[in-house]
Amino acid sequence: MASQKIIRKIISTSLSPKPIGPYNQAVLVDHTLYLSGSLGVDVKTGKLVAGGAAVEARQALINMGHILKEAGSNYDKVVKTTIFLQDINEFNDVNEVYKEFFKENYPARSTFQVGKLPMGAKFEIEAIAVVGEVKTI
Q: InterPro entries, per this entry (predicted)?
């Protein structure tokens, strides 16, 4: 049986902050896009935006949108997200921001309070999305 080649493409955009470690913004494997954790970093300054978890969430989701677009995807094609919060009490505020980007047919999601996030962040999100035509039933 001949082995079938799987396409693996590194996704990177200058519209979103560069990774702060040895990883990529995202990796596309065939039609599945794996997005690394995204922080609320302003791409122009390289620093976290000020104002707390909800403000960081908005910036992180904007950053994530640029990566999705670079890969040929969008928020509607996100199938799973994982949110990391410094303080789980920020859950409701973050949900309000989240709903600005995910309007219906929400992705599956997990949310965790964690001990510490990179750069002293209060919010981080990672995602799995698909690229190509999607039909929701």
A: RidA, RutC-like_sf, YjgF/YER057c/UK114
